[in-house]
Amino acid sequence: MRICVFGAGAVGSHFAVRLALAGHDVSCVMRGAHLDAVKANGLTLRVGDAEFRAKVRASDDPATLGPQDAVICTLKATGLPSLATSVQPLLGDATAVVFAQNGIPWWYDIGLSARHPPVPDLAFLDPGGRLRAAIPKERIVGGVVFSSNEIIAPGTAANLSPERNRLLIGECDDRPSERIARLRAALNAAAIESPDVKEIRETVWSKLLTNMSMSVLCLLTGQTARAVRDDPALADVVPRLLDEANSIAQSCFPEVK
Fold first, then answer.
1. Which of 45, 97, 99, 117 could form a disulfide with 17 if both were Cys (CB 3.0 to 4.6 A apart)?
2. So what's the pLDDT on residue 254?
3. Is residue 126 helix, strand or coil?
4. Largest pairwise CA distance in the chain
């Protein structure tokens, strides 16, 4: 497959190396010193003491990379406007665009069945509707990342969760599709776990509830998730945070269980 990782920072660089080493034609949209290093020496992934290097095409201009079979967008939500304005050269007749990000995605209300409870106005997630104009419904694939990574030097990403690296994907209307099966097969073969998902929004909320509880404590204390779980002083804090997060979720999105 021709796969472009759009916004290849820590997570995107990790996925790009694995997909390239699995035999796919991988390109990356990136910038700055990271881009310069990848152009000169390739893209390196460090996992423990092991290093894996892959040659990928890299550019800060998507127009130089050509149409793709799939675009995996690993930008943070605040960076998505750059995709809206520059993604078109990457799109062929059947290119899927996978949005792999934390939080409620801009496409959340797209593809919902008529039986689904109404959701709040989410227009603020896509100011001016630029993403909706650039990425029609038939291209959207939802994605949720479970993988910890960092850029340790220009051109080099380190994977900090070798036992847990996942990209869960699904159509925005949750229908089974050949392209989802093909993408999952490609990810699994590249050692990026991608099990079947019945409802992609349920997976979005599963990750978000973790972000709203455990991740908050990791940020505030500077500890790992394991250390937070084992800290007796925080034993009752995580359940309380989860209760609050669930209350918020159910008040805004009744489908959250």
1. 45
2. 67
3. coil
4. 55
Average pLDDT, the chain: 93
Q: What is the dihedral of CA 130, 131, 137, 139, to 10 degrees?
A: 130
* 8 A C-beta contact, residue 159 and residue 148: yes
CB 130 within 8 A of CB 84: yes
Out of 39, 198, 207, 257, which one is annotated catalytic? 207
Q: Chain-centre distance of CA 5, in angstroms? A: 10
Q: Is 76 a catalytic residue?
A: no
Number of CB atoms found within 10 A of residue 154's CB = 14
Residues 6 or more apart from 21 whose CB is under 8 A from it?
52, 54, 190
- Identify the band that residue 114 occupies on the pLDDT scale cut at 50, 70 and 90: confident
Contact 217, 242 (CB under 8 A): no
Write the single-letter amino acid at 185.
Answer: A
Residues 6+ apart with CB under 8 A from 117: 253, 254, 255
Mind listing the pLDDT tens digit for each residue in 190-201?
999 999 999 999
What integer pLDDT is reported at residue 40 of this predicted model?
Answer: 96
